[in-house]
């Protein structure tokens, strides 16, 4: 009786966990494989053989599906963990800088008698190109940062005028061509979604002036807003707005000219190669 119970339980387990097909070996392995695919309804199977026949055992379909689900779940988890990791990468870029208008206060001192005069100072800056290098530390759906160096190529000052008591005057010491070249160190804190990121930060501006002998320019601090989008794995495009201030002082004849309250905003489009 005990043997009958064991045999019965064995048969039940085979029917629950697997199904078997016996195929005569004389039919050939290819023919038996076709029968196995049909018999197991497309599920995976195991094929054993002896001298007389091939024995096909169908894998339990629910077990197979559960294994696939576990594999998919594992792959998804690994991918999500990978996406959440912050990575450090670098970028080089070319930028196009739009025209800008400087607006500030100009203090003019007559060195012969010590009198001071203040006036509103306005001048136009031509568009220019720029180059840059940056370090990028980012994660998807998380906070990150960008730190880098911009080199704004030479741009000319245009329309150099001062306004005082409603009168507009040409600023004669700037009547010649005056050109600016800027080196800007910047740092930005940002939040990145899947591809898009948005950030803000501070910059330190070093400016060289050509065409204005004796000019003294001190480093100055400004800010920036950065909106970027990654194009695949190796490129990004950023729209950038930065504020630039100048602390400029120069002498001409008996007069000292001091630009110490003013600046301008640059709009900038950056095309980046990331590596």
Protein architecture, described:
The chain has 275 residues and is an alpha+beta fold. It has two domains: 18-61, no CATH class; 87-274, Porin (Beta Barrel), CATH 2.40.160. It contains three helices and 16 strands. It has helices at 2-17, 29-39, 61-84, and strands spanning 18-24, 45-49, 53-59, 87-97, 100-110, 116-125, 128-138, 142-164, 167-170, 179-192, 196-210, 216-218, 220-231, 235-245, 247-252, 255-274. Strands 4, 5, 6, 7, 8, 9, 10, 11, 12, 13, 14, 15 and 16 form a 13-stranded antiparallel beta sheet that branches. Strands 1-3-2 form a three-stranded antiparallel beta sheet. A hairpin with a 3-residue loop joins strand 10 (179-192) and strand 11. The longest helix has 24 residues, at 61-84. The relative contact order is 0.13. The model is unreliable at 6-18 (pLDDT under 50).
CATH class type of the largest domain: Mainly Beta
CATH architecture of the largest domain: Beta Barrel
Label the overall shape.
Answer: rod-shaped
Mean pLDDT: 82
Helix content: 10-25%
Q: How far apart are the first and last residues' alpha carbons, in Å?
A: 74 Å
Task: Assess the beta-strand content as a share of residues.
Answer: over 45%
Task: Give the tally of structural domains.
Answer: 2
Radius of gyration: 37 Å
Task: Summarize this structure briefly.
The protein contains three helices and 16 strands. With 275 residues, the protein is an alpha+beta fold. Strands 4, 5, 6, 7, 8, 9, 10, 11, 12, 13, 14, 15 and 16 form a 13-stranded antiparallel sheet that branches. A three-stranded antiparallel sheet has the order 1-3-2.
């Amino acid at each position: 009786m005990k043997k009958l119970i064991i045999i019965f339980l064995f048969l039940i387990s085979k029917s629950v966990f697997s199904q078997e097909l016996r195929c005569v070996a004389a039919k050939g392995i290819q023919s038996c494989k076709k029968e196995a695919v049909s018999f197991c309804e497309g599920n995976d199977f195991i094929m054993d053989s002896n001298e007389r026949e091939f024995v096909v055992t169908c894998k339990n379909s629910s077990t197979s599906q559960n294994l696939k689900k576990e594999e998919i779940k594992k792959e998804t988890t690994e991918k999500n963990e990978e996406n959440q990791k912050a990575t450090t990468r670098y970028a080089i870029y070319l930028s196009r800088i739009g025209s800008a208008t400087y607006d500030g206060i100009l203090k003019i001192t007559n060195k012969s008698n010590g009198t001071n005069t203040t006036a509103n100072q306005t001048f136009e800056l031509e568009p220019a190109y720029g180059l840059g290098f940056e370090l990028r530390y980012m994660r998807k759906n998380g906070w990150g940062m960008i730190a880098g160096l911009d080199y704004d190529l030479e741009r000319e000052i245009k329309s150099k005028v001062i306004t005082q008591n409603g009168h507009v005057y040409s600023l004669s010491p700037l009547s010649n061509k005056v050109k600016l070249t800027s080196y800007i160190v910047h740092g930005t804190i940002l939040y990145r979604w899947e591809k898009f990121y948005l950030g803000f930060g501070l910059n330190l501006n070093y400016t060289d002036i050509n065409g204005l002998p004796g000019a003294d320019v001190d480093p100055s601090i400004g800010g920036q807003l950065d909106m970027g989008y990654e194009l695949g794995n190796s490129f990004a495009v950023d729209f950038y707005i930065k504020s630039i201030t100048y602390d400029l002082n120069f002498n001409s004849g008996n007069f000292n000219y001091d630009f110490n309250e003013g600046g301008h905003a640059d709009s900038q489009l950056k095309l980046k190669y990331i590596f």
